[in-house]
Amino acid sequence: MSSLLFGPGSPKPSHVYSRGDFDLESGNLRKSRKSRSSVSSFVRMMKSIGSKVSNFYKLHPFVVFITSLIFGMVILIVLSVYESSFRVMKNHKDDFNFASDSYPMKDLHNLVMVAGHSIYTSNTCGKFDSEDSWFLEPYQKHPGQASTFVAHIKKGVEIAGQDESTLLLFSGGETRKEAGPRSEAQSYWTVADANGWFGKQNSVRSRALTEEHARDSFENLLFSVCRFRELTGRYPKNITVVSYDFKKERFSDLHRAAIRFPKERFFFFGTPVTADSREAAIRGEALVMAQFQVDPYGCIGSLHYKRLKRDPFHRSVSYPTGCSELKDLFSYCGTAPYPGILPWGEQLHIQLHSSQ
């Protein structure tokens, strides 16, 4: 009998009543009891909470208002802190990525800056010594004036050629409306290139670039330091300035002191003006020196107005984007030296690369 009831060939049990319980006494199918919906329970709970909050608000409206205000302020503070942290992390990430990339001049450590004084306007090369090839202000119109510009360029190339770890920068912006959108810096670079870098093309040309925003001598220095940082990833160990000899005190004492660069690491090479213009140049320099002594950062009065006048095309200055460590120095305006920490002072030297 067991083989007939439970053998391999016996029929499989029916699932007709699998969805409920079968009542053997009545012969009817009992439906399963449905469980309470968790969603409806949650809705009832929220309604209950809402009702309690509403009743509490009716009894204590001021307390609810203050509590809501405090809660909202806490949320805003938390979101603000989170946003600030996110921006800081993003900036650090960007700085790291930028620092990880290869700077075009990362192996250079010293700066030679040639300050621009005019713009080359000739459409042909070979007339660099001719005053007609340059845009000259009335006080610059003297025989031999153009040769003094070439002398600056040549001196800068010579100095840079003596040290392979030197970056040569020609500095000067688009300062003259009548000359068109041409910069002093690009003019000097073009003259050097057309002259074959005065016999040092192979050693200097690849290390010579431009700073094309400066509008006066102070910006020549400060902007070139920032430009050096953009190109090398560090600040210059030594700075050499090339300009007219009568401007030595202005650069070496006033401008250098304004950015508090170490005196023992700052050098100046000056070339003479023409004999006819020397007396007037010295008188003019005395006036400019007096202005910078009162306003060392050139941010007020006549020096500030002069900068505005020397920006006829409203060029946007990118600095200090490429030298964030100098952000506060760039925005500083005072009669006393800038009081903040600088990368080259107090033994603090920004160095983004391990190589020296």
TrEMBL record:
Record GO cellular component, one term: cytoplasm
Keyword check for Transmembrane helix: yes
InterPro entries: C57A10.07/YOR238W
Entry's transmembrane regions: 62-82
Keywords: Membrane, Transmembrane, Transmembrane helix
The protein's name in its UniProt record: DUF218 domain-containing protein
Organism: Vanilla planifolia
Lineage: Eukaryota, Viridiplantae, Streptophyta, Embryophyta, Tracheophyta
